[in-house]
Amino acid sequence: MKLKWNKILILAGLVILVALATAAAVTPAFKNIPYLGKYLPLIKDVTLGLDLQGGVHVVLEAKDTPEAKVTQESMQQLMAVIQRRVDQFGVAEPVIQQQGRNRLIVEIAGRIDPEEAVRNLVKTAYLEFKTMDGKTVVTGADLKDAVESKDPTSGQVKVDLTFNAAGAKKFADATAANVGKPIAIILDGKVLQSPVVKEPIPNGKAQITGYESLEEAHNIAVLLRSGALPVKVEVVEKRAVGPALGADSLQKSKHAGLVGVLAILIFMIMYYRVPGLVADFALLIYALIVLAIYVGMNVTMTLPGIAAFLLSLGIAVDANVIIFERLKEELRAGKSLRSAIDAGFKRAFTAIFDANATTLIAAVVLYFFGMGSVRGFAITLGIGIVASMFTAITVTRWLLHLLAGSGLVRNVRAYGA
Amino acid sequence: MHFIRLRKIWYIISLLVIIPGLISLMVQGLNLGIEFTGGNLLEVRFENPVPVEKVRQVVSAQGLEFSRGIQKSGTSDYLIRTRHLTQEEQDKLMAALNSLGKYTVLRNESIGPTIGRELTTKALLALLVASVLMIIYISIRFEFKQGIAAVIALIHDTLVVTGVFSLFQIEVDGAFVAALLTIIGYSINDTIVIFDRVRENMLHRKKGESLEDIVNASLWQTLTRSINTVLTVVFVLVALYFLGGSTIRNFILALLIGVVSGAYSSICNAGPLWVDFKLMEKRAKVKEARA
């Protein structure tokens, strides 16, 4: 058999193409090119989980109290309030979702102080203005706005409150009726101040003073703007990961992953020779496909997720191993290279299919019963299983045929026979 | 070597590994992490190294029972495990630690007791559902008896891993459940590849060829694949274990033990067990015929 140059060209083109795609996916060299830079490199666009970039995962549970029962409506209100509070942290893509009847999951990633964030999330922030005889004049629900400020000359820090139309009317009536008497400003049952009304206030404006720093005033203003929590809330689960640990984990698992993958690649070439090289190449294509799926489906990459990705490389290799072992047998049985490749794939298929199907069952069960990072693990594992089956059955087969047909490597011993 | 004729030896080896683990499970149970029991875990990194006694002093001065202990997790990193703390208690503890020098919080996890109970139920349910689904799948694609043999091999792997974790009192957390399910996935994978070969060889069964010989031949034909696959996975896992950082080390360890056990049980338990089931069926039929 002579060398078939058209097949060699396709093969060479393919190698160059995959090499380029790999480079584009992982190197930041293309970052500054307009248009292209937006889509390349892929690896930059993989969303990192809390455990890899730092952040906090909180599960809030709403509790029934005599004053406020937990209903679907109050959960909706609670979610809206929490949403407004989280928005104030100014972080990208926070997650807020209801779980079950009475729980909210909140995930905030990025460089925030997680303890402070959680404290501010669960503050009730129920504001009341009360007269001396205990009558409630206005509440936080009547607020239109709350803004903190610092007087440049006196240095006094205050929060300016603006009531909405109805609130302003109530406030005007109450101040008119209570001239010379104090009105208490109460936040979460704690009296902040009890200023004496000097004259009726018709414009619906009031202020709270006595803060030590602008930051403290800012936190209060945020809470007041976002509104009071409609129900009692408890933190039942909190996982805060500092950015230092996140960066550390990412760095370490990348390193470990690289070593593990290199070991696989070398092993495959040493043991399976030419098919091993083909498998390694297919593995590269597999990794690119999976990476693209992660970005396309916006999969959040967590620490267990990285482990799952690396494990799925094992599954991808396994499919190739099954095929190559079959190929060897067929060659030893005296078949020609091309028919041995076809027969090898045909007979390996049921094994690969059934084996992957059962592993997929485990991944799906894991997804439905798992929470948080375990779910991320299940998704990455699932994607890995499906993609590995695809590459093993299509890409490896095509590559082997190309190689065999090209006449580059004709000695059947190179294929393991 | 005839795998099937030696099957009693394989069963004994399995039992020798599993029984100590089972006894340990009954006597001392598992070292359950805060995800199961509820509690607090605070990991801090001091800028300057601080002796462990100092950390212990500060924590106990807060009146916290630290039965779960304080553990050094890096050159100047400490893991402090306590009962479930309220936010105020956590704040107080973190403020008190300031007296030992500047530090950063690496992680702070606080899990309420209800979450832990839910996790346990869900974990057991997940294992059960996965097993049942797999038996159903194998019964459809292969046969019911092979499904049972495969699931016994899975239970074997689950017991080996939980047994080892109990024996050495290695902490078990939520990720452990994920590890168990992954192990199950891998082990069944191995078993299926072997049964697939058995299925094929049964079709071309020669006259007078015994069941034992067919299964033995199938095991040998798939042996290189079984070993190579485990090897590649072990490469990755060993790299992750030593280089991947402390947060996932226990998770990786569980996978490592499980994957090796999975390969063993697929070769030495699943196939031979199926032969035993088949032989039992045959004997029962013979008896019936006689009666």
From TrEMBL, chain A:
Protein keywords: Cell membrane, Membrane, Protein transport, Translocation, Transmembrane, Transmembrane helix, Transport
Source organism (scientific name): Desulfofundulus australicus DSM 11792
A family per Pfam: SecDF_P1_head
Chief location category: membrane
PANTHER family for this protein: PROTEIN TRANSLOCASE SUBUNIT SECD (PTHR30081:SF1), PROTEIN-EXPORT MEMBRANE PROTEIN SEC (PTHR30081)
Xref: SUPFAM superfamilies: Multidrug efflux transporter AcrB transmembrane domain (SSF82866)
One GO biological process term: intracellular protein transmembrane transport
Subunit structure: Forms a complex with SecF. Part of the essential Sec protein translocation apparatus which comprises SecA, SecYEG and auxiliary proteins SecDF. Other proteins may also be involved.
Keyword Secreted: no
Ranges annotated as spanning the membrane: 255-274, 281-300, 348-370, 376-400
Entry keyword Zinc: no
InterPro entries: Acrflvin-R (IPR001036), SecD (IPR005791), SecD/SecF_arch_bac (IPR022813), SecD_1st (IPR048631), SecD_SecF_C (IPR048634), SecD_SecF_C_bact (IPR055344), SecDF_P1_head (IPR054384)
Domain SecDF P1 head subdomain: residue ranges: 134-231
Subcellular location: Cell membrane
Molecular-function GO terms, alphabetical: protein-transporting ATPase activity
Function: Part of the Sec protein translocase complex. Interacts with the SecYEG preprotein conducting channel. SecDF uses the proton motive force (PMF) to complete protein translocation after the ATP-dependent function of SecA.
Protein name, UniProt field: Protein translocase subunit SecD
Membrane topology: Multi-pass membrane protein
Gene Ontology cellular-component annotations: plasma membrane
Protein translocase subunit SecDF P1 domain ranges (all copies): 75-133
TrEMBL record, chain B:
GO biological process assignments: intracellular protein transmembrane transport; protein targeting; protein transport by the Sec complex
Top-rank taxon: Bacteria
Key words of the record: Cell membrane, Membrane, Protein transport, Translocation, Transmembrane, Transmembrane helix, Transport
Every Protein export membrane protein SecD/SecF C-terminal domain range: 99-278
Location within or outside the cell: Cell membrane
GO molecular function, one term: protein-transporting ATPase activity
Signal peptide: none
UniProt keyword Kinase, yes or no: no
Record field: transmembrane: 9-27, 123-140, 147-168, 174-195, 227-245, 251-275
Keyword field contains Protease: no
Recorded topology in the membrane: Multi-pass membrane protein
A GO-annotated cellular component: plasma membrane
NCBIfam families: 2A0604s01 (TIGR00916), transloc_SecF (TIGR00966)
Family: Belongs to the SecD/SecF family. SecF subfamily. In the C-terminal section; belongs to the SecD/SecF family. SecF subfamily.
Record text on subunit structure and interactions: Forms a complex with SecD. Part of the essential Sec protein translocation apparatus which comprises SecA, SecYEG and auxiliary proteins SecDF. Other proteins may also be involved.
Function comment: Part of the Sec protein translocase complex. Interacts with the SecYEG preprotein conducting channel. SecDF uses the proton motive force (PMF) to complete protein translocation after the ATP-dependent function of SecA.
Protein name: Protein-export membrane protein SecF
